[in-house]
Amino acid sequence: MDSQKEALQRIISTLANKNDEIQNFIDTLNQTLKGVQENSSNILSELDEEFDSLYSILDEVKESMINSIKQEQARKSQELQSQLSQCNNALENSEELLEFATRSLDIKEAEEFSKAARQIKDRVTMASAFRLSLKPKVSDSMTHLMVDFSQERQMLQTLKFLPVPKAPEIDPVECLVADNAITVAWRMPEEDNKIDHFILEYRKTNFDGLPRVKDERCWDIIDNIKGNEYTLSGLRFDSKYMNFRVRACNKAVAGECSDPVTLETKALNFSLDSSSSHLNLRVEDTCVEWDPTGGKGQENKVKGKENKGRSGTPSPKRTSVGSRPPAVRGSRDRFTGESYTVLGDTAIESGQHYWEVKAQKDCKSYSVGVAYKTLGKFDQLGKTNTSWCIHVNNWLQNTFAAKHNNKVKALDVTVPERIGVFCDFDGGQLSFYDANSKQLLYSFKTKFTQPVLPGFMVWCGGLSLSTGMQVPSAVRTLQKSENGMTGSASSLNIVTQ
């Protein structure tokens, strides 16, 4: 019966996943159909605009050519009219002179005839008819303004749609996800020397497989990529996956997107649990700051055996639990007394995880580590067998130490600006690093028997966290070399139940 139920549950799960996959595909088809209709309308509009622009250019060229012909016609007409006027005047003068010469032949007196002959000779010498060019200044030819648009007609007849680059192919094998950076690599299905650049589009998602149409973030775009790969760095992995797709572009147009590829970007994301933090701590998401006014109005102090021996962290203003209001939410009591502690809101039950912590410059005292959920509300990190930490004290004297089960190991290294925390739950290892140089500060070797929570203690100062981080490659390498070499920490390594 039980085995049949399990089999049926698997079938139900498979069917539900398949239905979800089909529904996503239906959404994709509907969106694609809508896109076809919208894009077709846009393309038709753009085509009309292009042809209107072409018509406009042809009209402008035609008008310009007509003006050129009319100007040439006017110029030649003016030249010929001017020459014609000169010729008419010369002819009129010449005919008058001819008539005068003819009449002079009838003169009988020698002296008068001789006078007329001289006048005729002088007028002939000065006559414009003999100085006039009888060749037209311009011809009637207009062939220099003729046109032949046969080549242009051929070009127009060859008008066609732009050559669109083919969709690139993303190679998942060549893609790399490491150190909170993603390198995406692609190739063209065939060589295309007209490719000018590529466009990479990406978005975060919590769904594996094909990108979802509904309830997804918008695509972010990186344009003008010249090579066949691109690296996104400095990412915060606050989603399980990221979708990627690429488009190739020539000088004129962008091609279709490649088939999308989904890469896993899983990392530990957590915030600080303000519901159970000490009242003297002001907690906001990934920041915690000491607030000496947070416990005012609480007059009664806890006395007794359970509060003895917990003065490792100086406390000018100790808060009490006598009049403390109950926690509004959360599954545990608030930390109190001298345990200025706040835990993360996400338990670690398996796998390898990494986060970083940065302290304010004036922070007097703080601890960074992990603890079981059972850590008592009066317990300080590192003072019980249910918590592990490194502790920095800048009050009165400067100390840097690893702590577990009320045992202390002084660390002879400089306190870094940022501390990286590596937790290998299955391997039973908790290591601390200089987040910048990746120098190993200290390692605990143990066997975790319960889920652990990131833990933080702060007094007179503040801490800020960076989560959503992958285990850095340098840390993975160091872990391989450091495993089995943590004998210096043997006094603090213990299996806890």
Automatic annotation (TrEMBL):
Gene3D superfamilies: 1.20.5.170, 2.60.120.920, Immunoglobulins (2.60.40.10). This is Fibronectin type III and SPRY domain containing 1 like. Residues 268-474 form the B30.2/SPRY domain. Residues 298-309 have a biased composition (Basic and acidic residues). It comes from Pipistrellus kuhlii (Kuhl's pipistrelle). It holds the Pfam family SPRY. Residues 164-268 form the Fibronectin type-III domain. Residues 310-322 have a biased composition (Polar residues). It comes from the Eukaryota. Keywords: Coiled coil. InterPro entries: B30.2/SPRY (IPR001870), B30.2/SPRY_sf (IPR043136), Bbox_C (IPR003649), Butyrophylin_SPRY (IPR003879), ConA-like_dom_sf (IPR013320), COS_domain (IPR017903), E3_ligase_FN3/SPRY (IPR050617), FN3_dom (IPR003961).
